[in-house]
Amino acid sequence: MQSDSALRIVWIYPDLLSTYGDQGNVLILEQRAQRRGIPVETFHVRSADPVPEGGDIYLIGGGEDRPQILAAERLRRDGGLHRAIARGASLLAVCAGYQIMGTTFGGEEGQPVDGIGLIDIASGRGEGRAVGELAGETDSALGLPTLTGFENHMGVTRLGPGVRPLARTTIGTGNGDGTEGCYTGRIVGTYLHGPALARNPGLADLLLTWAVGAQLPPIDDSWFERLREERLTAVLPR
Ligand code: GLN
Question: Where does substrate bind (predicted)?
Fold first, then answer.
């Protein structure tokens, strides 16, 4: 890690986990920080390399079962993400990346595989594959508008006490119990691709606010509003 003044964004294991535009989440954070005059340094950490501990926001994406298992093993052995979170860093974990953060998740045959135990969630195989658009009303404490995104997963996730659902689903499956994703401390987990932060810029700003420790000035969001309107109109009854 180089400079102390820049916001440090760490993109974990792009060689294993990055489906359905998940890398776009990194671009959105970079852009929304830079448009507010915040300098950014981004680190792409491949799975053979150690996860640096000095980042401000960490991101991890979704993927298939085998790379997911490999990523869980490497993250557990490495320990860098645990240390970064203990220091107060923020994290956005998507789909396979989200499941990995918990105590257990379902492998290729549905067998239980150990997660990295960063948050109190447990995942397993659901009845069938959840594929398509998801919409949901975000937890009122977050003050965010309707959640929108695309999901494609077999897993279902149970949240332990102290971990709150990110949203209540109106369309789609999410965690499989009428809720979608979770948040706890400065960690956000979600099943949403699409990429999630392009479709939910408010969530991007929440992560940035946690990282910089201050409210951010508003920016012109008309492009994002058009994208959200188009996606939500396609799925929600009006
Ligand atoms: N392999 C996991 C599942 O099917 C995650 C899939 C994904 O990341 N899109 O539940």
Answer: 129
